[in-house]
Design a protein that fits this description.
alpha/beta, Lyase, Ornithine Decarboxylase, Chain A, domain 1, TIM Barrel, 2 domains, 8-stranded parallel β-barrel, 25% strand, binds pyridoxal-5'-phosphate
Amino acid sequence: MEEIFYYRNNRLHCDEIDLQEFSRSKRTPFYLYSQKRIEQNCQTVIEAGKDLDFLPCYALKANYNPAILKLIQNLGFGADVVSGGELFFALRAGFPPKKIVFAGVGKTASEIELAIRTGIHSLNIESAEEFYLTREIAGKLKIETPVAFRINPDIGAPTHDYISTGKHLNKFGIPLNDALRLYQQAFEDKWLKPVGIHVHIGSQITDPKPFLETAEYLKDIIDQLRKKGFEISALDLGGGIGIDYYNDFKKPQREYPLKTILPSYLRAFKNLGVKLVVELGRSIVGDAGLLITRVLYRKQTPVKKFLIVDAAMNNLLRPSLYHAYHSVVPLILNDNAKDRFDVVGPVCESGDFLATDREMPLTERGDLLAVGGAGAYGQVLASNYNLRPSIPEYLVSGKEVRTIFKGQTAEELAQKYDW
Ligand SMILES: Cc1ncc(COP(=O)(O)O)c(C=O)c1O
């Protein structure tokens, strides 16, 4: 596969853009995404599902910049939403209602009503009480409402506890026996139309095993439902496929879990006569994004060396939230000696770091660094903590760079309060 981020003459490029050159006149920090990489990832998904009855959806939660949504929509994807806000953005970006699935443990009555009126592909129900409320609203509106049941399979995934979602100690989904009971009630209801089941076992999973284990589990459930005489037309397999956060762009990327996991996962359901839905977020946009940041100061204590940079936990929360690893590389490679640093931001929290104890070549004030794997769960998790305005986003395609978010100013933050 064509490399999108690479060093040429020791200078980091995205597509045809020399990032040092590009950054010279730009306010830092900023996010920069590669259109080509997003397209490659989408094509990999489409290829994995070819010859199958397949609806690939993009999980908006990973990155809902409108330019990115339109790009993915144009490639024929559907949308996975978890709030009225995401449903609104998905519709605005042109995703057809029949290609939208709506999950989430805490849908409000007005979100359920909006989804029903919109005529989406399915509302993925996550509790008995949500089911009863949906049934009541569908009955009042007298609109046929397709529902799926998110099953909690009690399958562990080798990932961080906060993004493991398929165990009984997690808040997500419904235990199997309860879901089967609700499926029957939906079947007997005038307005609800049970279309299938849904699972999502967690995120940033790079091992195929938990997916294949889930496949066996799901096939057994389909068997049970069909033996009871219930129709099942769709199987929503969730998302969760991981990316290579260790890529330092010096060599061709080693790992591409999307390609090694998705085709075999989908093919495990071949000939079952169900439409296969996936809801991929991170694996579509994660490795398509960089966070570019500038070294403000170097600092040393008796036990540590710090690089203080201008990006912080309020821009990229993943390291602070999950101790997530992101590669941090210089925009210009040099032969400088290496040392170990904590790369930290200006926010007033000791938990504000982008990398800890990381071996890196020595840098100076003003040098630029790129944080890899920043396309998913980056800008969407950002906050204005310490009154730091949100940062710009750019989209690269070949030699072109488009500003897809201009960033905020402190003045605009004041305006949020009509101040
Ligand atoms: C229900 C559901 N579907 C899809 C996703 C997207 O996951 P990922 O970005 O790991 O593909 C998530 C992420 O939390 C989710 O909760």
